[in-house]
Amino acid sequence: MRRWQLSFPLSTCSEHGRRTFPFPLLITLFSLVFLLSTPCGAIASWYLGGAFEHVELGNDFEDFDDAIGISLAGGFRLNPYFALDFALGGSGHDEEVLGVDADYSRFDMGAKFIFNDVSPVQPFVVAGLSTHYIQFDAFIDDIDGLGLFVGAGFEGFVSPVNSFGIVVKHHWWDGEDVFFSGDYDGTTLTVGVYFNYYFLEN
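Above: the chain's sequence. Below: its structure in token form.
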């Protein structure tokens, strides 16, 4: 496979010379700053939903074909402009060079920033951390990784508790072969059509 090394403007060098990103520190500071700067008094609510996704793997995994996957999502909307958002997604892919099947899964944990809480259609951006896992069917080998993602979309409310929307996410992640200790650079692009249900308090 061809290899590309990703670099980030705010990265730091590890002891092995590879570039790593201070994910936990960045997302924690960013979330605290936004929480302190947004209005208080909004009704907080949990939400739960799911999505159908188009999943495209890239960089060292560009030989995997695109696939349709599903994801379960949920989170907590703290105020009209900010939510903590989580998603667990999975899809099945064919590796075209080796001719084997592989199952891909990921877990996203991020901060969601909503720009308009008045209109029924609310645009947003989301950013955070993600974990990734690939399991091959034909032989004993797994790849797991950690990375960063950013995304954008909109959410349209058809009632106070039901919404539908579209979200596009791009993930950058570093993977490691569990059995042979190989290193990989991966990307994941997802385009999802989703629905959410909000558990509003009376």
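Helices lie at 23-37.
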